[in-house]
Design goal:
Elements: H1 4-15, E1 19-22, E2 41-53, E3 57-76, E4 79-86, H2 94-115, H3 119-127, H4 132-142, H5 147-155, H6 159-211, H7 215-228, H8 232-246, H9 253-267, H10 280-290, H11 295-311, E5 318-322, H12 329-340, E6 344-348, H13 356-359, H14 372-380, E7 386-390, H15 403-411, E8 419-420, E9 427-428, E10 434-439, H16 447-451, E11 454-457, H17 463-481, E12 489-491, H18 493-502, H19 510-528, E13 535-537, H20 542-546, E14 565-572, E15 575-587, E16 592-595, H21 600-615, H22 626-629, E17 630-635, H23 649-661, E18 669-671, E19 674-675, E20 681-682, H24 687-696, E21 701-705, H25 717-720, E22 724-728, H26 731-738, H27 742-745
Parallel strand pairs: 5-10, 5-11, 6-7, 7-10, 12-13, 14-18, 16-17, 18-21, 21-22
Antiparallel strand pairs: 1-2, 2-3, 3-4, 8-9, 14-15, 15-17, 19-20
């Protein structure tokens, strides 16, 4: 006893007659029970001895005298006092009582025989008890009967019902005893089997030792495989291969193949995984720290993590980042891994031709090995890394198979949970891997593979975005790489703007990074020579570090109009570009000459534009005979660069019209759009990149198809506000906008 209520009751009883009323508390967790918390029926007991224990506790030895019912519980000072009435057993039919009593004795004998632990003394003691109530009381105390059943036995005063309840408890106990005996026998048999296997294995080990084989290594390998926690199918396969190893000498070539296979199973992650970042705010913070802009990417990653947090289980998305070189596709993937708290692995697919690089080789020769997918999973060490598939648009195929077809199983969320490498020959789960693919263009990615990926396009950066990226990331990075401090080298905003405009002409920031690196190296040389302790690079002294400007913005675009020359906009894998299309009409036989390394699509656009102008020559004041007596030469400068695409139709038509009418084309207007033989202007793609190209060279007015009006919203606001988009649906509107003096001619 340890509670104050109980201790006070014992002390009070010792001062009077040493009698206490022992009863069961209904809720054991209640520290200060009242009368309502106690069972009414209990036992009146006589205190024989009390022993003081450390910590204000008592050990009390009592002897039960008789069962009693409490009429009333009330508190007197620090203890509870009960007014009790003794319970008297109610006998019935003596023969029925005797029959139940004999049956109960048989059951008790069976239980004690099954137990065997000290049961002989108890059985001898029970043999001398003739009183039914005393017999039940002794058995209830000695046998393993549940507390609630004991309470029912205590409360029942009718002898026959009490015997029935007692027999029910005995039957339950007998079933439990049988079950315990069965479990014990099963355990014994299992131990015997294990001992037998151990004995045989030790014998086998001794035999292998005598033969000089590496059986000890095989045993350790088996232990490691069993401790790895492999999936059942994989474990079964691994153990069967180990059994084959046990039956062959280590000098056998196949032994080496099997050993390498077992090592791969051990090295691959099967259940190991990293914990994702739980707070979405932390993910957003990391992404914001690593990259400026790129809101779509950040939003998609946060969406994925939010859904994963709510569902607890989600097949990882297959993202494909498409954009020109240098816009940060690879660094975005690294940043996503850091934000999620996952491992990061990268696999370059550029120039991949062999399908075995993805699916692995069959284990039919010594040099066989798994594919690069599983190789990178081994390097990751977890089943849920961020896996970057770089340059997915540069996969090629030959007689050894098509790697892009093999990637279908890897990148299909419905299939990659059972990815099967030819080397492993068992299923491997890739569903928790977050695959991120990168590409410069979608055109060369096979349609089935593209269909399995979520495409996110990254266009080029504006000058303002490049300046911000350089200030936040590139300048500190390059300063650190070249061993410079902020005091030793400072690059002003004006210098950064001058680098962007005069020394780089790209969609991304890779050339800008190299240019900043050049400035840092020049400063490092001067500091190492002792020419100064620190330098500040400004717009005015930038040429001292980088030399003369490589690119000069074409200021002529704003004023110098020309006949037969129109400015078009084109999309390339490196971003948007401006193209000047030149047309010259000269005396001849009506021949058409196309130069500038034009592709088939641009050639068809040129012929369509000529056909439209010829069909409507009278409308624009052109003599129809001019087309019979004049040759047309269409040229796109920079002839060494291949050019193709379906967006130069209206530019060519404008230049042709200008050449035949002698009316100049506005050089401050750029245009993009395809033309039909009926003079309609069709929509184009890549409007954002083309707009950035126009903004780079100072053009403000851009003619675009009417159906592309909706795409204007995707252009950054700081670029969009400086441009005037003129939406057209017919070629006449283009002519009225771009050709001087065509306002009246187009309506004739």
């Amino acid at each position: 006893m340890g509670r104050g209520l109980s201790l006070a009751a014992v002390e009070r009883a010792e001062l009077s007659d040493n009698y206490v009323f022992l009863t069961r508390q209904r809720d054991p967790s209640e520290d200060d029970p009242a009368g309502a918390d106690l069972s009414e029926i209990g036992t009146v007991a006589h205190i024989r001895q009390t022993v003081r224990l450390p910590g204000d506790r008592l050990r009390v030895y009592v002897e039960g005298e008789y069962r009693a019912r409490a009429r009333d519980f009330h508190r007197e000072g620090e203890f509870l006092y009960a007014v009790t009435d003794g319970l008297v057993s109610q006998h019935g039919d003596p023969d029925l009582e005797e029959a139940y009593f004999r049956t109960a004795k048989v059951l008790v004998h069976d239980i004690l025989s099954a137990d065997g632990r000290g049961s002989k003394d108890l059985e001898e003691r029970l043999t001398g008890i003739a009183d039914i109530d005393v017999y039940i009381n002794v058995c209830a105390y000695q046998l393993h009967i549940r507390e609630d059943k004991k309470q029912l036995l205590l409360e029942e005063t009718r002898v026959v019902p009490r015997l029935r309840l007692f027999e029910q408890c005995l039957n339950d106990e007998l079933e439990i005893a049988k079950l315990e005996r069965k479990i014990s026998q099963d355990v014994r048999r299992s131990i015997e089997k294990s001992q037998k296997e151990y004995y045989l294995r030790e014998q086998l080990k001794a035999i292998h030792t005598e033969l000089g084989d590496e059986s000890e290594d095989n045993a350790k390998l088996r232990e490691r495989l069993l401790a790895k926690g492999l999936p059942p199918e994989v474990e079964e396969k691994a153990l069967s291969e180990l059994a084959r190893m046990d039956r062959m000498p280590s000098s056998s070539p196949e032994y080496t193949v099997l050993r390498n296979y077992a090592d791969w199973l051990l090295d691959l992650p099967w259940r190991e995984q990293t914990q994702d970042t739980e707070q979405l705010a932390d993910v957003e913070k990391v992404l914001e720290e690593d990259h400026y802009g790129l809101e779509k990417i950040k939003e998609r990653v946060v969406e994925y993590l939010a859904v994963l947090k709510l569902t607890g289980e989600l097949k990882a998305p297959i993202l494909c980042l498409v954009g020109p070189p240098g816009v940060g596709k690879t660094s975005i993937a690294k940043s996503i891994a850091r934000a999620l708290g996952r491992k990061f692995v990268r696999m370059s697919l550029g120039g991949l031709k062999d399908e075995a690089e993805i699916r692995g080789h069959r284990r039919t020769y010594i040099g066989a090995m798994p594919g690069r997918i599983l190789y990178e999973m081994k390097n990751a060490g977890s089943v849920n890394p961020v896996f970057l598939l770089d340059e997915v648009d540069k996969i090629s195929s030959d007689l050894r198979g098509d790697p892009s077809s093999a990637l279908l199983e890897v990148l299909d969320p419905e299939q990659n949970s059972t990815f099967r490498d030819r080397y492993l020959e068992v299923n491997y789960d890739l569903s928790k891997v977050m695959f991120i693919a990168t590409a410069n263009t979608l055109d060369t990615i096979p349609a089935p593979l593209r269909d399995r990926m979520e495409i996110i396009e990254l266009s080029g950066y504006t000058s303002q975005e490049k300046e911000e990226i350089a200030r936040r990331y590139l300048v500190p990075k390059k300063r650190k790489e070249n061993g410079l401090s902020e005091d030793q080298l400072t690059v002003t905003d004006g210098a950064l703007a001058a680098m962007i405009d005069g020394y780089t002409m790209e969609a991304g920031v890779r050339s800008l990074e190299r240019t900043i690196g050049t400035v840092c190296r020049k400063a490092a040389v001067r500091i190492a020579k002792g020419e100064g302790k620190g330098f500040t690079v400004t717009k005015s002294n930038l040429e001292k570090f980088l030399g003369a400007k490589r690119f000069v913005r074409d200021e002529g675009m704003r004023g110098s109009d020309e006949v037969g020359a129109a400015t078009g906009l084109a999309w390339t894998a490196a971003g948007g570009e401006t193209l000047t299309i030149e047309v010259s009409a000269m005396q001849g036989k009506g021949d058409v000459q196309l130069t500038g390394k034009l592709g088939d699509v641009m050639k068809e656009s040129a012929h369509a534009a000529i056909s439209y102008i010829r069909a409507h020559a009278e409308k624009y004041g052109i003599d129809e005979k001019d087309f019979e007596h004049k040759d047309i030469h269409i040229h796109v400068p920079e002839g060494a660069t291949p050019k193709d695409g379906p967006s130069a139709g209206i530019t060519m038509a404008t230049a042709i019209l200008s050449a035949f009418t002698g009316k100049p084309v506005r050089r401050d207007v750029a245009m993009t759009g395809e033309i039909t033989l009926r003079g309609k202007v069709l929509p184009i793609g890549g409007l954002k990149e083309k707009s950035l190209a126009a903004a780079r060279i100072g053009i403000h007015d851009i003619v675009i198809p009417e159906e592309n009006k909706k795409d204007v919203e995707e252009i950054p606001f700081n670029v969009r506000k400086g441009l005037n988009f003129i939406c057209v649906s017919s070629i006449d509107e283009v002519f009225r906008t771009a050709v001087r003096g065509m306002d009246d001619a187009a309506h004739q």
